[in-house]
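Handout for the seminar on molecular recognition.
Each group receives one record of this type.
Step one: identify the two inputs.
Step two: read the structure output and locate the region that could contact magnesium ion.
Step three: write two sentences on what you found, then compare them with the reference statements printed after the record.
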Amino acid sequence: MAKQLQAIRGMNDILPEQTPTWGWLEEHVRHTLAQYGYREMRVPIVEFTSLFARGIGENTDVVEKEMYTFEDRGGDSLTLRPEATACCVRAGIQNSLFHNQQQRIWTSGPMFRYERPQKGRYRQFHQVSVETFGMDGPDIDAELILLTWSLWQKLGLDKHVTLELNTLGDLESRKKYREALIAYLEQHKDSLDEDSKRRMYANPLRVLDSKDRGTQSVLGDAPKLHDYIDDESREHFVKLCAILDDAGVKYIVNQRLVRGLDYYNRTVFEWITSALGSQGTVCGGGRYDGLVEQLGGKPVKACGFAMGVERLILLLETCNLVPEGVNKTVDAALVTFGEVGTYGMVLAERLREACPNLRLQVSCGGGSVKSQMKRADKSGAAIALVVGEDEKQNGTVTVKFLREDKPQLTCTFDELVAREELAG
Ligand code: ATP
Ligand code: MG
């Protein structure tokens, strides 16, 4: 026998039994984004490598070691997108979406990162990415957070996530802080983990979110980012906090929250859960005022976030928040027996026309009534519609209840389509 083919490690099939949960989540996301006036944009999955190298930053985990990069047949270096912000910015510049305009945009789909696969961390995963352009905040920063909060409430996740918030200041204040931090880290170099030693000069802020114990203890006395923040950024942050306070959204200010990508300034935030181990961030984002210019556009203020769909689904499942009905995809099953010929198929078409919301599965492939009833039961349908020779003769259908202890009944087509079980 030929060797069984396998999917690439860390790239998952999302099976038919899982997609209803995905669809349910996606509907809530779509609905919430529409409530706030966001429009969908779809961008390619592959871009020139230089977009991410320039956009995300050379010294980030993503660009250093996580990208799927390859040469195409024409010799161009291409990369499977590891995130969508840079793609949206590229698309916005190319299609003149930013000129004298405000934009509220979202996009979603698979992202690719060469990471060690584990629960909540995959090599192909999905994000919903929400990006705004042309607004300098802090109201838009707050809107993005309120939007996520509204979504968590609808999903029942509000009790299971906490908001961490920080400001990184402007580029100048970050530069000053960077120098102070490097000077401090140099004095404690021996206690740092290898990654942090390596990053110390190239991307010292990233040392702040090292998970290494030794590094963590050194950081206790490190210079504090907030002592270096410029006045305007400070004011921006105070106003953002005031909106969140007034709206009743709780948050923790975490001065060590810097986020993994280079392009952030001022506001950064993460929604975190303790239910998923070290894969605890379900959503993260912030302001990236410099990115559009960095990628060749005119300067445009921007703020956005991305949420990880797999992690959200894991969390929803862990907390038992997926409603039972979500996995139900068939309302009724049509079972035929005897010499009814093509009657069943045609009847099913008439039923679907009369009841547009009805999800009706025809028991194709024949078999005994018993095996068809078994299939009907397995489909999850609440009722079986049974048609034999008598029913065909009389233009009736026999309804059997598969989940309730009720006697079967026989009704005409008109009586049947008037029943609430068929309304869908
Ligand atoms: P982490 O610190 O967990 O590696 P990150 O900072 O790299 O996350 P972002 O680039 O901010 O993640 O992406 C936004 C969200 O996408 C994350 O909060 C997470 O929910 C999700 N995400 C990121 N990487 C992965 C992955 N490899 N597998 C599944 N989800 C992911
Ligand atoms: Mg990461």
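Reference statements: DSSP finds 15 helices and 16 strands in the chain. The mean pLDDT is 94.
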